[in-house]
Amino acid sequence: QVALSDGVHKVEFEHGTTTGKRVIRVDGKEIRRNDWLFRLLGKEHFIIGKHNCIINIDANSGFAYEYTLEIDGKPLQKFRENRSKISRTWTLKLDGEEYRIVLEKDTLDIWLNGKRIEADRDFADEGTETYFTITTAKANHDAVVKAVSTKHHRFGIYHSLIVDGTEIPEATE
């Protein structure tokens, strides 16, 4: 599972250890296939959105193989750690529907269910407020992402999402 601004993507890799066959699927859709390769080891390059990805195939002991995923040149775990520093994610249910909201802290872009949306920004006494609307089949819901200084250099800025006056807890992805 790879969490990006446009959603959480499922990456699957199939490796035929006798034929060298390699199949990559992202979100259930086959994006690359090699049915016969003489090399059993190596790298497979592909793209998810604007992110460059590599699956490394290395020999382990005996006839076992080890597979690692790199995104933008970083191992998956390191990419996830960096991602948590540059974005904030919230998930909530409104009018019976699931919503995923992502704030990209470097660009201040807001993503709603995988689509970047327009938002209005205002400067407040202690930070910024980014206003947008979540439209469901039943109603429009007012939302604001507040960025407030913690006044402590170690902790930086605290980001919160408030929908219809209720603060939404941050998601753990």
UniProtKB/TrEMBL annotation:
User: What's the domain of life for this entry?
Assistant: Eukaryota
Q: Name one GO biological process term.
A: negative regulation of extrinsic apoptotic signaling pathway via death domain receptors
Q: Which Pfam families match?
A: FAIM1 (PF06905)
Per its UniProt record, what InterPro entries does this chain match? FAIM1, FAIM1_dom_sf
Q: Which residues form a coiled coil?
A: none
**What name does the UniProt record give this protein?**
Fas apoptotic inhibitory molecule
Its source organism is Didymodactylos carnosus
